[in-house]
Structures are given as C-alpha cells and as structure tokens.
Amino acid sequence: MTEQKEKPSKLKEKKRFKAQIARFHDKYYKNLLLIPAIILLFFFIYMGIFYSNTGGFIYRDISLTGGTTITINEKIDTDKLKQDLSDKLEDINTRRISDLITREQIAVIIETKTDRETSKEILEDYLGYELIDGKNASFEFTGSALSEGFFKQLLIAVILAFIFMALVVFIIFRSFVPSAAIIISAFADIFMTLTFLNILGIQMSTAGIIALLMLIGYSVDTDILLTNRVLKRKEGSLNSRIYSAFSTGITMTLTSLLAVTAALLIVNSFSAILTKIFTVLLIGLGFDLLNTWITNVSILKWYAIKKRN
Amino acid sequence: MFQYLNGMQLKKEIKMKIKLNFTWKIWILIITLILSLISVFGVPPVALQKGVLITSVESNSKAFETGFREGMIITSVDDQPINNADEFSKLILNKFLQTGNESIPVVFDTTLTEIVYFSNKSPEITISDIPATNLKFGLDLVGGSRALVQAENKKLSSEEVKDLVDTTQNRLNEFGLTDLKVRQVSDLEGNQFMLVEIAGATPEDLESMIAQQGKFEAKIGDEIVFIGGKRDIASVCRNDATCAGIRNCEHTSSGDICKFEFTVYLSEEAAKRHAEITEKLDVNSSNPQYLEKPLDLYLDDNLVDTLLISEGLKGRVTTRVAVSGSAEGETREDAYKTTEEKMHKLQTLLITGSLPFKLEIVKLDTISPALGGEFLRVIIIAMLTAIGVVAVIVFGRYRKIKSSLALLLTSLSEVIIILGIATVIKWNLDLPSIAGILIVVGTGVDQQIIILDESRRGEFLSLKQRMKRAFTIIIGAYFTSVVAMLPLLWAGAGLLKGFAFTTIIGITTGVLITRPAFADIIRKIEE
C-alpha cells in the first residue's frame, strides 16, 4: 500500500531532478568544456617538459627498446636479486609470479637491456645452477634495432588507425563539427592516457600500444552513439536525446570498465602483456567518460543549438 | 509482461517461445554455434579418446628411427591399453627397469600404425595426456621457440628470403626437427624476415642450427675444389658404416679426441675441377707419397681439417672424396657423442648447401612450457569473472532475466564461434589473440546494450525500425574498429597479427551473425 503511494512521488522527484540537471547543463555546458581544456593544457605542458627531459613521449620498456626477458621457474627472492645484480644487468627489473589461489611463488621474471647470452651467464653465476632454454627457464630476446623498428611501426599503426577512424567518422556523419568533436575526444583519450601513464611512471610496451588501438575502438563507440542520437533523430528535446545517449553509453563504458578492473585484479603480475593491456584500458576508459560526456557532449550541444537558431 | 514465475515454469516458457519463434537469423546463429562446438571438441569428442599423445621425439634417436613421431597417439603397449600419461610412464618404467643391457621388443599400438621397438632403453619421447579440445595454442602459452632472422648488414629481397626459407626448412628437417614452421614475413617498412617457430621442447644448439651460414669450402691453396650443396655434391654417405662413421678415438692430456670420416661423391663438374687443380701440383719433396699442397676443409671460413692428397690422385678425375674431422670431449663417451654430432652437422651442411649471406637472429624466444597450463587457467578465470561482472551490471540495469540471459549467452556464443573458426583455419591462439577475443567480447556486450536500449526507446516506431536504428550505430562502430586494426596486420613483422586478426574475425562474426540474431531474440522476447 505505502509502496504504491510512494511511486508517483518518486517519479515526480526524478523528473524534477532531471529538469534541474537539464537547466544546469543548458546554462553551463560551455563552461564545462573548461574542465577537459584545463586538463589537456596541463598535460600538454607536462608532456613538453617530459619530452625535453627524456627525448621521447613515453617510457619504453624492453619490448620497445630491445633486451632480454628471462622467466625462471623457481622460488627466488626478487628484491634481493634485483639489488644484487643491478650493476651487472643493465636496467634490471624483476617481478614475481604467484599461484592464483595459494599465492605461492612459482616463477620470477627478470627484464634487462643486457643481451641474451651475457645475462644468462650472469644469472647462472649468481644462482649457481644451469638455466636450460625452454625447460627451467624461458628467454625472450629482441635486438635493439628490431625493437626500434617495432616501435616506429607501432606508432605508424596507431597514427594510421587514428586517420582511418577519422575518415570513417567523416563518412558516417558528413558534417564537420560533429565529426571533429568525435575525433577531438578520441585524441584527448589517447593523449590523456599516455600522459597519465607517464605521470604514474608506467612503461609502455608493445602490449600497451595494442591497448591504445583497442581504446580507439572503445572510445569511438560511445561517441558515435551520442552523435547519432543527437543529430539523426527528431523525437524529444535535445536534452532528452543527450540524456538517452548518456544512459546507454554510461552502461556500456561502466560495464567495460568494471569487467576490465575485475580481469586486471586476476591477471595482475601473472601476465605482463595482459596486465599492461588492462591497465591502459582502465585509464583510457576513465578518461573516455570525461571526454565523451563533457568534451563531446558540449561541442555537439553547442553545434546543435547554433544550427537550430 | 513478465510475471513472477518459478524456475521450472520460466524455463518452460522460454523454451516454448523460442521453439515457436525461431527466425532464420537465430537459426544461423544456432547452426554456426553447433559447427563451432564440433570443430573445437571434435566428433567424437577428443576428450573421450583413450591413450597418450607424443609431444616430442628426440632427433636422431632410436625412437625416431623406429617410427615414433610427434602428434601420434599411443593407445596400447604390448596389448595393454593405456588411458593416461601416468599409466604409460609406470608401464614403461616397469618394462625397461629389469632389462639391464639386454634389448627387449615392445609393441606400441598407435592410432596410425603399430611400432615394434627393440631396445634396452625406454624410447626417447615425451608424452602427455590427450588435450580435451582441438584448440591450438601459441608458443607463448604452451612453450616452444621462435626466431626472427635477418641477414647481417644486408637488406634481403623477397626472393632471397624465399630461398632462405627453403634451405632452412630443408636443413632443420635434416637435423631431425619435425614440428616446425618456417615462414617469410615482412613488416610495414618493407623489411623481410624469416620466422622459424618450433613447438614443444627447445632443441639444444638452436641458434647455430638456424643462423649458421654453413659455408663449406674445400680448397687447395687458394683455389676452391668444391663447396657444399647440390651443384658440387652428388651425394653424401650417411648411416652406412662402410663409408661413414667414427674411425678412432684417442686419449690425450686434456681428455679424449675422436675422428670421423665419411665419403662424399662429387658431381662431374667438381671432379673435373679437382683434376685441373691437382694437375698443376708437384709431389711433396719431403713426403713423396703425397702432393705438395693439402686439401683444406673450411666451415664458415674456419679450418676444419687438412687432408693430404695421395700422389696417385694427381690430375685424376675422381668423384670420391673422403672428408674427415675430429672433436674432443672430457670423457670417451662425450668425445664420441660430440664427434658424431659434428659429423652429422657437416653431412647436413654438405647436402643442403650454404646460405649466400651471414644471418643474424634479431629476436629469439625460447619459452618453457612449465607455466602454460597455469597461464591458461588464469586467463579463463579472468574471462569468466569479467563476464560475471557484466552479468551483474546488465541484470542490475535492466531487471529482466530473459534479456540479460540472452545477452550473456550471445556473448558466450561469440567466443565459441571465434574459437571454432580458429580451429578450422588452424590458427594458433597466442596471447595477442586472446587479448583480441577479450576486446571482441567487450565490444559485443557494448553493442548488445545498444540493441537492448534502442528496443525500449522511440515508442512511435515499430520494433523493426528501432532495430534498424541500433544497427546504423553498430555498423558505424564496426567500421571504425576494423580500420583501426588494419595497420597492425603488418606492423612489427606480423608478431601482433593474432590480435588484429582475431579482433577483425570476432567483430565481423558479431555484426554478421550474433548481433542480428540477438536483435531477433530481443524482438521475440519484447513482442
């Protein structure tokens, strides 16, 4: 009985709340653009300083600079090993792999810029037993020239992917401002993600770059949804169309975000490749929320209102 | 529309509705799904097959000679049926434990042939239980080795790499490696590489097997008499004790040293060259049995051996030449073994010929299979958890069991279809491919959310029109994703191809099969 009485009032309340939000948004949507703009500006400055200090736009791990990854299937103290060998193995990095359930260590991963043979000898000396390729140890070696080539090509791949994506967006919507809005927010996603990784000091790898490509796909999904609902539909007010896109889009992004977080917690440290992919996606999807629902929405709303008048 | 039904009634109702309302799009999904399940699990299911799988056979071993090959399934030993790897190991251990030095015959039944193995040692093979599916996993998951090879200081043309691939394939086969893939790959910058992939255990000496140029030259003074390869070598004596083998071993201060010798038959042309060159030589003044200059054998510009040429051969067209060399070891047994290996290597290089350029291994991965199983387990758990999370969110948002369930089942069927396609085209699922499957599931769920939302929006439109709207968004998103993946098919010498490939296959399956079927299922549920 009481429940039934409550329902209409709740609905009214919801409507009133929605109207309030709409009024607020109508008044301040242009100002909202300042949030991504300020972040972008701050990140541009950060990147400028970063570039002048390091001569690059990201920290690269050995998959992009060349070096050796050694996995030894033994219980070894990773911190001690890192400390003891830091002057012998160039840029040494260690990670332990544990069983998912018992948390017992099952292997150690060592990354270094030192080449395969030398690092094998140093490690055998240190550990006091032989490391046999493909039996108690895995070696993954990539020459520096090849890695340099990989890096260059992956950059080209990302740039090409971005250009292709932009072309497809222009072909779908055939109007400049809305297409540009999508492309700007996709760019902001990638740029903010990269800068944030630098701020956190996370190294980029080939897997990380793969994740950037994934991000292009994911971020553009919601932008296309938004633009389609706002521009190609006639029913309802502008605000209600934006709101409908928002409620669908936010479900999409949140599902991806939470699924990625759950997966990240499980694979964490077990697989370097998957951990890197999920980390980059997590950060990227976070920025995508900002860029789709503030950057893209505001530009699009501005455009739609101008066109109507 | 949806009353409170108990589980049984609900199931019944779903069944009834679906039974009555299958559209052709749903049928296509069901048929593809069944075909995929068949290709993944096999008919009859491979999991039900009894026996053990041979995962590797030691090269040049007795087991290899007898006919054991990788991939065979052993079903029984001496008529005793084998169910799993444990049983097999115990049985073999028992059989060869008591033999001592005496050889015994053991009959192995495989799915292909019957092998009679006669020895005092257990066969040099590694075995495992038969895998439960037909899925093939990449080296980064199940172990193996992979080398990316380029010429040193030289950009290779496509033809040169093609020749290189042929020679290498030939050579590695001669070395007794069977489960290997040698391919030509190129990257975005037009660099050509040779990619060698070997599944399972990593052979010792892999680097030299792949990258050794193997330039064999027999010279008198500065003049080349013959080189390795078909042009100069008609045939090489192997596995025949009368013309090839280890001739003697000696004890030295540092250990033992053995000497090998085998006969090489020269082509007419090379034999004539031999005659022309020796014709000009004088007899050795201090040792008149021989000519003044010896025949020097070089391998990759290192002197292997020096053979004195007997005086009788001067100016003679001879097609028979004895090639020899030696190797050392700490013990007699060691020396014998290394000498044998060295001889075999030299024979192989003489037959297959040398490579016209020096090679450099630019990437070499040798991955132990030890972590593979654990790895797959983690990935499967991660995937199931992610799907579980999606389920909770979707149900929380829509509060409709049927639609949410349809969404989850459709996503799951998408994974199965991708795996089905992978087994049909014999695609090796490596880590990048699995990352690709994850992105496909992610976009799949996203697009199904669009379909669900559109189906509930725009009351003045027919459901069909609403679905059409959903698909304009989905197709747009599809094309942006596909074009974003295309460059990756070529970047990085194709090592990340798996990711781009599975993603493209997956989202294409989505747009062509699962999404339309899902839209119809939702229509049926909503109507």
Tally of distinct domains of chain B? 4
Radius of gyration of chain A: 25 Å
Which class of secondary structure composition applies to the elements of chain B?
alpha+beta
Strand content of chain A: 5-15%
Strand order of the largest sheet of chain A: 2-3-1-4
CATH architecture of the largest domain in chain B: Up-down Bundle
Helix proportion of chain B? 40-55%
- Strand % of chain B is 15-25%
Q: Class of the largest domain in chain B in CATH? A: Mainly Alpha
CATH fold name of the largest domain in chain A, please?
Multidrug efflux transporter AcrB transmembrane fold
Question: What can you tell me about this protein's structure?
Answer:
Chain A is built from 10 helices and 4 strands. With 309 residues, chain A is an alpha+beta fold. Chain A folds into 2 domains: 14-60 and 146-308, Multidrug efflux transporter AcrB transmembrane domain (Multidrug efflux transporter AcrB transmembrane fold), CATH 1.20.1640.10; 67-142, Alpha-Beta Plaits. In chain A, a hairpin with a 6-residue loop joins strand 2 (93-98) and strand 3 (105-112). In chain A, helix 6 runs parallel beside helix 8 and helix 9 (238-267) packs antiparallel against helix 10 (272-308). Mean pLDDT of chain A is 87; it is low at 1-5. By secondary structure, chain B is an alpha+beta fold. Chain B folds into 4 domains: 7-44 and 370-526, Multidrug efflux transporter AcrB transmembrane fold (Up-down Bundle); 50-129, Pdz3 Domain (Roll), CATH 2.30.42; 144-212, Alpha-Beta Plaits (2-Layer Sandwich), CATH 3.30.70.3400; 216-232 and 240-333, no CATH class. Chain B is built from 14 helices and 20 strands. Chain B has helices at 7-21, 24-41, 62-66, 85-97, 139-142, 158-174, 206-211, 268-279, 332-352, 372-398, 401-424, 431-455, 463-485, 497-526, and strands at residues 52-57, 73-77, 80-81, 104-110, 114-119, 125-129, 136-137, 144-151, 180-186, 192-199, 216-220, 223-227, 233-236, 244-252, 255-266, 295-299, 302-307, 320-329, 359-367, 428-429. In chain B, strands 1, 2, 3, 4, 5 and 6 form a 6-stranded antiparallel sheet that branches. In chain B, strand 11 and strand 12 (223-227) form a beta hairpin. In chain B, helix 10 packs antiparallel against helix 11. Residues 1-5 of chain B have low confidence and may be disordered. The interface between A and B is large, with 74 and 79 residues. Strand 4 (137-142) of chain A pairs antiparallel with strand 19 (359-367) of chain B.
